[in-house]
Amino acid sequence: MESDIDDHSPLTVAVPQSLSSDDVESLLTGANIWDRSGPIPFEHVIGNSPEDLSNSARFSCCLLPSDPGREWLGSLIRLNSDNFIECFDGMDLGDLCPIIGSDPKSKHHLLVCLSTRSAYHLPVARKFVTALRHRGLIKEATAPAVEMAVQEAFANSLIHGNLALTTSGRLSMDRFNELGDETKKRLASTTYGDRAIVLTAKKRKNGHIVISINDQGAGFTPRKETDETTMPGQESTFGRGLPLIKSLCHSVTFARGGRTIKLTFDQIESDVLSADPAFIREFDAQSSIDAALRTPQNATILIADDTMLSREIIASYLRSDGFTNLVFAKDGEDALSQAKAHNPDLIILDIIMPKLDGYEVCKALRADPQFAETPIIAQTALEENEGRTRIFDDGATDLILKPLNKAELIARTKIHLENRLLVKQLRAYRERTQSELDLARDMQENLNPAPEQYRGTGFDYGMRISATFQMSSELGGDMWGLVPIDEQRLGVYIVDFAGHGLGAALNTFRLHSLIWSDQIRDPDPGAYLSNLNRHLKGLLPIGQYATMLYGIIDRSQKTFSYASAACTSPVLGDSTTGTARYLDGSGVPLGVIRDARYETREVPFDQNSFLLLYSDALIETTLDDGQFLSEEKLLSMVHETVMESSSDVDLAAQIADQFMDRAPVQLSDDFTVVSLQSANGANGFTARDETQ
Amino acid sequence: MNYNTEQTDKTTTVELTGRFTFGDHSNFRKLIEEMRAHQSETHVLDVAGIEFIDSAGLGMLLLARDEGEKARATVVLRGAQGQVKRMLEVARFDTLFKLED
Fold this sequence. Notes:
By secondary structure, chain A is α/β, with parallel strands linked by helices. Chain A has 22 helices and 26 strands.
């Protein structure tokens, strides 16, 4: 498993609060999974749920509690780590250790290790694929095929491998029921249920992604290639997805006696990955070193010409003007390999050459992103117009006629090298602007309360508060916050400025300072919004506006009173039944008219109530089915989430996790979800009025 | 996977929602028992609300068809879209079921 370059620095490990320190210690030191020798210092960062752990910190490993549930499975996307390992009783990794502790030179980009017992009930394939998307390892377009293949391979390894169940042949209902009972029994047993399953993903240099699924079963011998089109529909009905897997992958191979299946997916590299910026920053840092600026005289120039005399003439002209980093190619194929080997800053290319002519070389170079912008000067004796235009079509930057004129050659070489330098400088400038924008992003994110703040505040009011915020690809206009009023009353607001980009971001700063200034102290939400609107109207340029909800949860009155300025309709529900309904979110947006009046609405909010606030990105993002999340679907998602988990669930985090599984990685608008749930005594939270 | 059954006249309509995968044994078993009790002439499995199905899920749909045949009922698959539609096509379910949009 990965470690840092320095062998003495401690490894940072994310640890769920529910794990005993003995278990953690024995897993970390007992299993031979680290690529270091000698005692390893560990630094534990402990959290009650993934939401408590910082999503900006880098973890060498993230431990998952026994039976992690959907909540901890969500850490695959929430936490910056490549390794996620469930810590469970009876864990015996055996020959899986070398897979987990793979050679640092070919380390995996993502690894998940789970017990069969918990993996069986979790949407592992889906979460794994969402995690790959967010790390930029697979493209949005390939994701559905990858998910289907991983799902089948994972089911095979789990059911036929670890649980050792045979399901070949067409099932009858009776046999199906027997299998169901047997599955339950084996999941509960230590022999089968405690077996581990490990999923890994690696990206190869050629852009292929290799996913391996490793089990601890008896292994399996792939049958002789039968009809590839035979699908589970015909003979065998259950879990025999191998033909399907093969149809979805570039290749499928087996290792460890059939206990490891490796799926290779091929992806066209030139396509732009829509990766989560947080994950690709590391990659970018490396590539910018390669792209260090060079001065024209230091430039590497590739001269491709089939006659030695021509090569020598060009070289002597260039040398006389101070260009000394020259490399040569004697035909078209050689030109391509020299280009790859030396990454030249400029290429002087003869059109008529053996093996591959200049046209083909040009095309091949332009197809490779590495040479997409490298200046290519074609030289030729051809004087017909056709040949000239064709070489430009194929991607040449410039054309120079033979016999060569020294002054012309040098002039053109210099111009193109200078252009290239300018482009590079422009890019560097753009990168600097980007880093300033990143700073602004950080500042804007800091307008929202941090987990330890809202968790603590929630605790003080006998509530479990959960929130997820993801900024759009640009700067956005979302913001939320908590305003403690007195011992019984907690204020909450959520804001969405129209548009995004710098303007919207600046407006959130304006509004944030207004909210936290002493000018506005109305105890009534309607009056509060009216007053805030008056102040904001004076600050905002015409045409800019915000939607906002401000509400107060009163623990002693058991009410939630609020006012809304065209905010998305809040969801109010009951934790015991999971039923929920929309509240009225209508009202004039802030900053539109000076004397807008806002009505205060009041609803009951007791020890079973929960409240969900969200920005419109939740309901206005196109999901994988090509549709928005409808009002009805959101309510049923809330209902299922509440009913599936016990009452102590981070509702907003769970809703966000399900949304991320189905939404593109890069959102076009800020995404905010906040939930406030009354915590009943069962989960350790107690309301303040009961403790004092 | 979750489901909702509704019986009108001689037709039982089952609306399935969520992900339908290998872990859905017990829910599916309950569903089959409910369908048996209804004794309808036509069973409509409305899969429009299914967002993802794997080959085990397909296997379970086949079981539902077998159950229907035993009771001399017609089993119809309705409303498949996206990934579900793709899986049904790959598995040639059009030859095994009556498919409706």
